[in-house]
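Section 3.1 - Work completed
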Amino acid sequence: MKLRRIGAPVNEGCDIHGSQLAILALQAKGLNFGTVVTVEKKNEIEGEILHLNTLHDFLSRLKLEVSNTNQAGEFPLIYGGDHSLAIATIAALPNKNRGVLWIDAHGDCNTHLSSESKRIHGMPLAVAQGHGHPKLLEIVGNNTVDSDKILLVGIRSLDEKEEVLMTSWGLKWITQDEIDRKGFEWTKDQVKSFLETLDEIHLSFDCDSMDPALCPGVSTPVSGGLTPDQALDLVSLGFESVTVSSMDIVEFNPVHDQGKTSELILRMDALVQSKVNGECT
């Protein structure tokens, strides 16, 4: 299978400067993109969540690009840009029998009602389950993901209302504290057991799942986190345990990078390329 990189240089979801430069930075490092979906500014309504109309337009076009890539028999590897893009990348493929492995420091399960920041990059996993602002739910339609088919790994920063929502939906997550206390082998066993209950997943990797002392190139760092080798092991485990039909790598902010985050991304890109090729050899 051929891998197709789709660039999504968006920062309107986080409203923090830098992530919109991610694709240019990665191109400078030698990554070639099959297409880049750019943001087109739209008029916004005062009092709404931030950049709602702009992101509705952008996500709708990104969803179509990912869907077309899949229908062409290519593997969509989407690069961001902030995590709001996952609304589109998850909605682009059928989710009736598909799960999600979400590697992140954050839950991204706020809704427009629970969010204090009103930033859409904190909402994509809620929207994927069918919870959130009606305009964002338009992108998903009936193509939602069942909550019991989602596992979050590396969590260490949840809003109080967000955690209540996640619990009420029956989500499962592994905190970074659990990883540190129980060990990485235990973590991999938990992830593998989850994946073996599924036939297919979307894999979403947020660069802020990493320890910012090791990989600082993100917009919203949280102390602690995964090492580069652990992150690569989890992604590899995903491909070895189940069919991965799409993947995104998000929240890379080159403004804060010192080379280590982009180095991890290039290693991850090579890993995914080998796994995608290997699926058909």
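Second construct:
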Amino acid sequence: YEAFVKLVGHLTPHIPRPAEKFKNCPNGHIPNELKLAVALHYFAGGSVHDIRIAHGISKTVVYDSVWAVVNAVNDCNLFQMEYPSCHEEQRQIAKEFENRSMAGFTNCGGCIDGMLLVLEKPTNDECDRVQVDSGKFYCGRKGKFGLNMQAVCDARRRFLDVSLRNPGSASDYLAFITSDLKHDLGTKGFLAENLCIYGDNAY
């Protein structure tokens, strides 16, 4: 509960206040605590209908709450995920991998891989907006529509860097070479000496 309250505090400055005309609605405005509870329930795989009934709100309010929280997370600097440029932090990441390694690896500054983030098939309007044909979002290997999400994690499986720039048909290689991380790693002195990022053959 303490973590939930803390998260509400971080996100509240980034969640729009209700419009003046809605402040005196019979049921009142939706508090940020409820918006976050609804969004977390939805992110965990909850059915919109179950969430609606459990909280006594409309289907529209469920979706509005989810997007309010998504936008707040994206706007909050605290949640920006970029691989740390500080060499001391990088060495600490490597130390945690070393402590867990049975092979004695001492140079792992993180592990990188890609995955398909599954989506509904994008509408024509959405495709026009991003100027990508809907077929590009289809991953033939997985048989689903989605985005190629590339991420780096630490020894505790926490995300250190996330990139979502390519549709589902893109390879991990393409996702990597178009990422900010690739540019950072190619910059002399960015990665601490004797460290590297571990990945499979795509990298």
